[in-house]
Amino acid sequence: MGQITETPAAPTASPAHAALSHNENSSQGAEMTSPSTKKPITRPQGKTKVAVVGAGYIADFHLDVLKETPDVDLVAICDVSQERAQSAAERYGAAHAVTDLTELKGLGVDVAHLAVPPDLHVKLTRALLESGVGVFVEKPIALDSKDARELAELADSLGLPLSVNHNNVFHPSFQRMMERIEAGEIGRVEHVQVTLSVPLRQLDAGDYSHWMFRAPRNIVFEQAVHPLSQIEHLLGAVQSATTTQLATTELHPGQTFHKRWSTSMVAERGTAEMYMAFGEPFTRSTIQVLGSDGSLEADLHHDQLNGEQKTLYLDFYNSYLAGAKRAKALKKDARKVLKDWSFFTLGVGARKDAFYVGMRDSIQAFHQALRSGKELPNNAWSALRVTEWAEAVAGDTSATPPPVPEFPDAGEARENEVVVLGGTGFIGRRVVARLLAKGENVTCITRRNHSLPPSIVEPAMEGKLRMIRASLGDEEGMARALKGARRCIHLATGNGNDWAEVQKIMVDGSARVAEQCSEAGVERLVYVSSIAALYTGPDGAPEGKINDSWDTDPEPEKRPLYSKGKAAAEKALKAVADRTGLKLVVARPGVVLGEGTPMQHSGLGLWVRDNHCVGWGRGDNELPLVLADDVADALVAATLAEGDGVDGQAINLCANPGITGHEAVKVLTEATGRKMEFHPRGLLTSQVMEIGKWVVKRVGRRKVGLPSYRDLKSRALISPFSSNLAREKLGWKPVEDKQEFLDKAIRIYGKKGA
């Protein structure tokens, strides 16, 4: 039975807002203010000098929009990482890259775009305002209404702009809906219905480290604030809400996640219902507004809008008109989406996808209002109301999140210590568990302490596992972890958005680990690479099978960054080992499956949708699959092996269960009860299609490289592997019985995918 919570919301002191009629624009209407403390907002003189704080994923959207925003001067990028700040500054032409917020005012910054995780919003917004810098903050403004109100009052008292990027208010289909509502098309707004059903790749992969998983209420502030900002726009302040959690799961002990929610709400100008589902295979995102004289429904996922109004005709003809008009509206919107995508791809039109347009119009509306003296859209008081909506929906799910464990001081390395980099990953945690089971002294190097599995937390808290926070490039942390160690396993992936980043993190970073191992007297380093470093096309095994050797793809420039990086990292590590005498083993797992890997694994094919897999070829060749547990067994064996049987060797870790991509998808269909389809496609056909896409992009003046047929052939994984060294030298016996393998690698998704 689901959990039911009823939350009354205290009315917000908003007399001006409450007086709005049903078709007024609430988020951009009269402010809810504290008249005694409010000062007029200071408007920029000349161009608005802007900084972006946080150089992560979402910051790129802000920076792309700011490039085309009139009268804006991008002055600085601020990030805790000087390297990230510098990289973003160079890409977008900012004059300064800094790591300290206090430097921004000295650079003349008027407004900072705050693009950092939600739990940092209040602290950094307050710091920026107190330093005299206005803020345009990513949603949500805060995680509770008390903080949101304090920020709004602080901004008012200082006369500084403070708005929130509730970009869904500017979603094109929602904007079209609002225009029709304000024109009186459906009469008085009475009820709003929202459906938000979306996939979450982190749930499939078992990666629960994201902020939204750290407390049950976080998902509301991460995802639900999008539709809630629209509901607030339509109905004003929330008065009460009743929430039922329809499906709940425990990610780790004490780490609860509510996957499905149903909420009924009462607001100052109507009522609302919202269904939310997270980690669902089918995406549905709609908002329907029921009025006294009609209804409108916006499909936010497809950027479509349709509606129905009363007519003077008899019911039978009224029903016909309703369907015909709906079909006409949907067809019109569908054609527009196709046209906009085609024109943008061909380089003859601007980017107009719904997400980008919402971001663009939200950001530009803020800057236009700031410069013109108009009311700021989605200002701090409007954002406070959205926060109150989120609190009302979350109800008593606002329980204290599981505490971040405070592990015992690591102290000095113990005798015969084994150090594991990347020990909290889906293979790494298996490696750590096996080493501990064998009675080894283990040090786990991790970048974070939250959302760790019990197999790591429990032995660490008991002092059986030495925990050190560090990462590639952290000289002091790595040196402390490796001092006195006997063996080291390097599972940390390291990657980047361009070759310069990959070279620095994956290649140079790994080489430095090898040097530090040598300096610390470590006997053996086991580096976990990938068969992606090899050429595995149909002509990739002249001897019939790909055997264990140091040979990587001789044409790495024709491969993607990850493959190129792994090949280069292997060579860099071998060079260090040859120079220093460090005993080095490079292990290359095949297509790793098992609990903790996504159901839609790219080794099976190209998943164009979560239930449609296009084969890397015909899909009838047996793939080099291997279980994560078997990979962990091999890595532990290689690390602890006495003598030098595998030292100085590159070993492949591929089992031979005799399963094709086509067969794996078929078993997924049987296990999940879903319609999972495999689409065979010849390599030459795929290449022709890829070249066609490339031509279209080049016509559109997009800088993209010519599709590599070599890489496409390599993805097909047609050449078989022998993996003899692991079997002969380490006694490795991976699961190769087909049915057992399917049980452990494919059928495990039966319950999850249902």
Characterise the protein shown here:
With 754 residues, this protein is of the alpha/beta class. Among the domains are: 15-167 and 357-387, Rossmann fold (3-Layer(aba) Sandwich); 170-350 and 393-397, Dihydrodipicolinate Reductase, domain 2, CATH 3.30.360. Helix content is 39%, strand content 21%. The chain has 24 helices and 26 strands. The strands form 5 sheets. An 8-stranded mixed sheet has the order 1-9-10-11-8-12-13-14. Strands 17-16-15-18-19-20-25 form a 7-stranded parallel sheet, with helices on both faces. α6 (145-158) runs antiparallel to α12 (380-394). The longest helix is centred in the middle third of the chain and has 31 residues, at 315-345. It starts with a strand and ends with a helix. Mean pLDDT is 88; it is low at 10-36.
Topology (SSEs and partners):
Layout: E1 3-8, H1 15-18, E2 48-53, H2 57-67, E3 72-78, H3 82-92, E4 96-98, H4 102-106, E5 111-114, H5 121-130, E6 134-138, H6 145-158, E7 162-165, H7 172-182, E8 189-198, H8 201-205, H9 218-235, E9 238-252, E10 255-267, E11 270-278, E12 284-291, E13 294-299, E14 304-309, H10 315-345, H11 354-372, H12 380-394, E15 417-421, H13 428-437, E16 442-446, H14 454-461, E17 465-469, H15 475-482, E18 485-490, H16 499-520, E19 524-528, H17 561-580, E20 583-589, E21 591-593, E22 606-609, E23 612-614, E24 625-627, H18 628-640, E25 649-653, H19 661-672, E26 677-679, H20 683-699, H21 709-715, H22 724-730, H23 738-745, H24 749-753
Helix pairs in contact: 2-11, 5-6, 6-12, 9-12, 13-18, 16-17
